[in-house]
Write the structure tokens for this entry.
Amino acid sequence: MPFDFRRLDVYRKIPKDLTQPTYAGAGVSVLSALFISFLLLSEFYYFIKPEVVSELYVDNPGEVEMLNVHINISLVKLKCSFIGLDIQDDMGRHEVGHVDNTVKEPIDGGTGCRFESNFRINKVPGNFHVSTHAVGMNQPQRVDFSHIIHEITLGADLQNKSLDAAAFNPLQGTDHSGAKSDESHDYYLQIVPTVYKHLNGNEDISYQYTYAYKHYSAFGHGGRSLPAIWFRYQISPITVKYHEKRAPFYTFITTICAIVGGTFTVAGIIDSFIFTAAEVFKKAELGKLS
């Protein structure tokens, strides 16, 4: 007698005339389908969206020894003609009145100035400051560095990634527009190199930073010193690395099977419970409950 391959079927079918559809079963089926659809879409979204994992290590990322800085600040009580950018560091750099990639835009009818600049600094301790030093002896009668900071960022723009944007531009929105006219403002920046590695292996290098602030009126041998807005920085030897990570495809398939199988199993239990309870209730109504 030939072997019947159909004997291996563990999913044997029941004829339709031996099954009984119910309203409760239909409701459970519809809810199960909606629930499965919701979980499948959610799981697919998290599968295609990579997870960002962070780690710390000691390194100096990048081959270049300089980093890009972008500054955007409003001086609300000082004209553009008096404002300049100075850069100093421990390697001996001392640049007064940096003008490359610098834009000055008058505000408040010319009484104030929106100052924006892109420049590079060495990866050594130093400072950059907004001052009136570049105009020499042609100082304004009143030097008032009341200001609002719109942006101070370093390195590549990572604010469109799945990271905390505030860590890369924590000074955004800082408002000292009501400061005293003779005050200097010091911001101490602790810069942390940050590497973001994409799924395709490309890397972006940026810099997070924290800051401390103080304001004061400075005095020298000849009397009161000219005020300025100082950004003094140090670069941490610790680098933060973020890299995108996606779960393996087999993990996604396993989760899908678990969702579908688990939902159908639980739905079957619920449907069976409802059907049994309904049958018992019917028998009770007919007085056939023993």
